[in-house]
Amino acid sequence: MRKRNILNLIKYHCESKDYEFKNEAHEIAKFFDSNGDSEISEYIMGLLFEVDTFTPQELDYSSDLLKATNFINDKNQPLPLPESIAYDIKGIINAINNNVGVNKFLFQGLPGTGKTETAKQIARILNKKLYVIEINNLIDSKLGQTNKNISSVFKQINSLKSENVIILLDEMDAIALDRINSNDIREMGRVTSTFLKELDAMNETIPFIATTNLFDNFDKALIRRFDSVIDFNKYSTDDLILIAEIILNDFLKKFKNKGRNMVLFKKIIKNMHSIPLPGDLKNLIKVSLAFSDKDDEFEYLRTLLKNTDNKYMNINNLKEKGYTVREIEILTGISKSQVSRELKGMQSYEGTK
User: Fold this and answer.
1) Which of 74, 136, 180, 330 has its Cβ near the most Cβ atoms within 10 Å?
2) Are residues 280 and 175 in the same domain?
3) Is residue 55 domain-resident?
């Protein structure tokens, strides 16, 4: 973020240029997100577009290795997951409520499949404080220091009030390498061993969730330490279309000036060459809404199509993909009568060949 961003923000506010103000604030939010401060980034976006999100508050406990995150307790916020994954998550919630020592859960899957957000949602649903292990601070270049840090953070975890917390170790790949992998260095093998030892000794009443994008490279002894491994790579095309609809419906509660045309929206999603996974899908829909003219109820649909289909202005292409004349009017801004004339002209031209 540069001084220019702040100066522009003040300027646009003073000049009552709402659209430019929001664009500049969005750039600032992206800066914080790219620098690892997603909490501030999401908070800014929430202020701009009235989206429920994390709210920075005074924390009960925090250290360089373990940080608490307070957020708005919104149990009605949707958790769009395929039925098979949702069933597993309900089981985890039941296990935590039963408090019988089944407390270690591993979420594995591609980036954007919802692993981290699901951990946050579990904390929301159970009304518990989410503590996040700071993986970047955990790993240290000094010989032996990483082992000390692991022991230290688990000591901090075990000192917490177990009935109030959930622990999240996000993207734990750096400390979960296979100890017999020839590409692994000896120091990291010792790190994994230390982690195994601390995980075994952890307070069984404290829920522990870890996430990974590289499950196949995990130390098998480490996998056995978890009570359950949840696979997030289970999204079908129908799942993603339904999830997109859930995401849009949730956003439209805040963007009250936007029109609702779910048939057209789902058609755009279905026609995508490759439907993004939920994390990217949510960002795509949010940006399409955020960057659309507040006085144009359907511009977000045009923006969504433009970002996913470079041929979006080609009337014949849209017709071939199954869009109606009315839908083409919405997506191109060309009147129905003109769309009909152009389509008839194309058909006549094809007929003369």
Assistant:
1) 330
2) no
3) no
Which residue from 135, 113, 117, 65 is spatially nearest to 239, judged by alpha carbons?
113
Same domain, 76 and 225: yes
CB-based burial, 322-344: b 16+ in 10 Å, e otherwise? ebebebbbbbbebeeeebeeebe
Q: Three-state DSSP class for 219?
A: coil
| 318-327 LR contacts (CB < 8 Å, sep 24+) | 319/343, 321/267, 321/271, 322/267, 322/271, 323/264, 323/267, 327/264, 327/267
pLDDT at 26: 72
How much of the chain exceeds pLDDT 70, in percent? 80
| 88 φ/ψ angles, rounded to the nearest 5 degrees | -65, -40
Tokens of 6: 């702040």
Query: Model confidence over 163-208: pLDDT tens digits?
Result: 789 999 998 887 775 444 544 445 557 788 889 999 999 999 999 9
Q: Which residues pair with 42 in a beta bridge?
A: none
Q: Please give the Cα distance from 184 to 175 (Å, whole number).
A: 11
Q: Contacts from 234-237 at CB under 8 Å and sequence distance 24+?
A: 234/82, 234/84, 234/85, 235/82, 235/113, 235/277, 235/278, 236/82, 237/270, 237/275
Give the span between the Cα atoms of 318 and 183, in whole angstroms.
50
Residue from 94, 106, 190 nearest 140 by CA: 190
**Closest by alpha carbon to 199, among 249, 258, 151?**
151
**Domain boundaries, position 95:** 66-231
Query: In sequence order, what are the residues at sequence separation of 6 or more whose Cβ sits closer than 8 angstroms to the Cβ of residue 170?
Result: 116, 119, 132, 133, 135, 210, 211
Answer whether residue 257 shows pLDDT above 60. yes
H or E, element range at 242: helix 237-252
Q: For 101-123, what is each residue's pLDDT tens digit? A: 999 999 999 999 999 999 999 99
Residue 191 to residue 148: CA distance in whole angstroms: 9
Both 94 and 210 in one domain: the answer is yes
